[in-house]
């Protein structure tokens, strides 16, 4: 593949596969299996597949401290983020409000990337991200009118997801040790499996639940493992390394419009006028933000290049 096309391929793959996770969550709700256990088994299966890939491609010994660091990243970017979103919806927070709060993540990542990583965002980048945030708001404005039955503290759960994935992203690019992608995925997925297994045991009062051999469960499991786990987080790691935290976070704004298209094609849920307008505004904001040249660190090196060396 041409080096010039690689960043665009990574960006497109990340948006498509990351969006598939929300569709997979919808499919998981159609299963009679407890959703936390379904996600725990999903991540266990993904761990085994990634582990097999690691064994087949392993060329050298990996530093243990590097693996522990990647486990911390996975527990935040996968485990913490998804667990907060799922629990928020489970306790009655509407999906629209949850999505709106989660859309704050790119702005928080951009704010932290400057002082922590040296990825200074220009006024054009900030303007593009604000416009994109407005587009996301339009996409979910219809859900905001629905009354929520959740207790007040439950609205802090999606905010916790935002903080978890942002801190995990920053930790990922600050890792001093380079870990192969196969090893990174294996360890991060294993850490996420542990997070969901513990949460499922707590929710089920210590009672485990085995996977159910039914069409809805198997279909949701296959979708989540192949597209969301291996595809989504594989492209997520590749995007962090190649594009940096700020640009990866900006691409997140494309996931709500793409998710709407997924839902329309699979479930017949066509967006209304606000959704269509939101798609256009979000796309415009992302294009504005991504047109700026990579910011440079104080030492003169491109910030994105420093990330790519992770």
Write up this protein.
The structure is a single chain. The chain is mainly alpha-helical and 310 residues long. The protein has one domain (6-308). It is 75% helix and 0% strand. The protein has 13 helices and no strands. The chain has helices at 6-29, 35-57, 64-90, 95-102, 105-117, 123-144, 156-173, 181-203, 215-243, 245-251, 255-267, 273-290, 303-308. Helix 2 packs antiparallel against helix 8, helix 2 packs across helix 9 (215-243) and helix 3 (64-90) crosses helix 8 (181-203). The radius of gyration is 19 Å and the shape is globular. Mean pLDDT is 77; it is low at 294-310.
Form type: globular
Work out the helicity level: over 70%
How many separate helices?
13
Strand pairing plus helix content: what structural class? mainly alpha
What is the radius of gyration?
A: 19 Å
Major β-sheet annotation: none
Average predicted local confidence, pLDDT: 77
According to DSSP, the number of beta strands is 0
Spatial gap, N to C terminus: 21 Å
- The structural domain count equals 1
Order of helix and strand elements from N to C terminus: HHHHHHHHHHHHH
- Which percent range describes the beta-strand content? under 5%
Q: Could you name the ranges where pLDDT drops below 50 across 5 or more consecutive residues?
A: 294-310
């Amino acid at each position: 593949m041409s080096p010039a096309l690689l960043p665009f391929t990574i960006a497109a793959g990340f948006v498509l596969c990351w969006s598939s996770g929300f569709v997979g969550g919808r499919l998981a709700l159609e299963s009679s299996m407890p959703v936390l256990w379904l996600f725990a088994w999903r991540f266990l299966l993904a761990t085994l597949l990634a582990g097999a890939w690691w064994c087949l491609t392993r060329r050298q010994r990996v530093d243990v401290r590097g693996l522990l660091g990647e486990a911390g990243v996975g527990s935040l970017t996968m485990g913490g983020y998804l667990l907060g979103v799922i629990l928020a919806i489970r306790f009655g927070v509407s999906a629209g409000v949850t999505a709106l709060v989660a859309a704050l993540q790119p702005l928080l990542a951009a704010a932290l990337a400057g002082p922590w990583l040296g990825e200074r965002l220009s006024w054009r980048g900030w303007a593009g991200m604000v416009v994109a945030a407005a587009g996301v708001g339009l996409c979910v404005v219809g859900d905001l009118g629905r009354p929520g039955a959740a207790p007040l503290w439950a609205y802090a759960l999606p905010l916790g997801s935002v903080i978890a994935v942002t801190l995990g992203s920053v930790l990922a690019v600050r890792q001093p040790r380079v870990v192969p992608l196969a090893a990174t995925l294996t360890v991060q997925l294993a850490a996420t499996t542990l997070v969901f297994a513990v949460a499922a045991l707590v929710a089920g009062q210590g009672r485990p639940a085995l996977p159910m051999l039914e069409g809805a469960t198997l279909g949701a499991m296959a979708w989540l493992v192949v597209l969301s786990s291996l595809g989504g987080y594989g492209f997520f790691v590749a995007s962090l390394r190649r594009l940096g935290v700020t640009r990866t976070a900006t691409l997140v704004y494309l996931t709500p419009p793409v998710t709407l298209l997924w839902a329309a094609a699979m479930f017949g849920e066509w967006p209304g006028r606000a959704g269509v307008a939101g798609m256009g505004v979000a796309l415009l904001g992302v294009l504005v933000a991504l047109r700026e040249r990579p910011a440079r660190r104080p030492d003169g090196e491109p910030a994105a290049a420093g990330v790519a060396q992770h």
